[in-house]
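<instruction>
Derive structure tokens from the sequence

<record> Sequence and structure tokens follow
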Amino acid sequence: MVAGLTPPDWEVTLLDENLGHPDYERLPKPDLVGITAFTSQAPRNIRSRPRI
């Protein structure tokens, strides 16, 4: 849905930590980040923010 709502010249990358741990050091620095989580996952997502 996110990719469908963005302009065609934007690059959209979706990361799901349930499917594996992304290598944040190798990812390009994003211009925009959206984070969603269940309440039980919130502490982990808060710890992930400095890496993004």
